[in-house]
Amino acid sequence: MPLVHVGDPVLRQVCDDWDGSDTPELRELVERMVATMHDAPGVGVAAPQVGVNLRLAVLEDLYEIPASFAEAREREKLELMVVLNPSYEPIGDRTATHYEGCLSMPGYTAAVERPADIRATWQDLDGNLHIRDLSGWQARIFQHETDHLAGIIYIDKAHIRSICTDENYAGLWAEPTPHEVREALQF
Fold it and tell me: Is the pLDDT of residue 167 over 90?
């Protein structure tokens, strides 16, 4: 499926709630979104990123990364999740700032401060309600994709002075935590 990029109004709409209907079209959409996520590659795709105004996202993070990055980012692998009508609330006051990118804004990355621990709520394709506490990178992915469904792009929450091209980030700042870049770019 082609990805929608920043500037397209669908990315700024508050998406419609899923009405609980399990249709072949919905399941096909989910399959196509998962394929798009894998092809990109990415760790999540929200329905508006493929031009669909529906509170739906797919998430999965099984990529190998250096142990120092995994530890600093509290990253544990995330098995495929299909989330409908997702929401989240912070658990406690702990936050973490890390660089994020977005398939709808290719070529750029920026540091975003987010709650490090959340209570995530969603429905699956069978309509079952799930409530799960997520921490670290899993919480970040869930928040990023859920924000898309409210018309929010990560750049809206980013430290503006932290914005980098992917090339500059990889060449200058690819470190487990953004301490050095924070000092150099003053954010």
Answer: yes
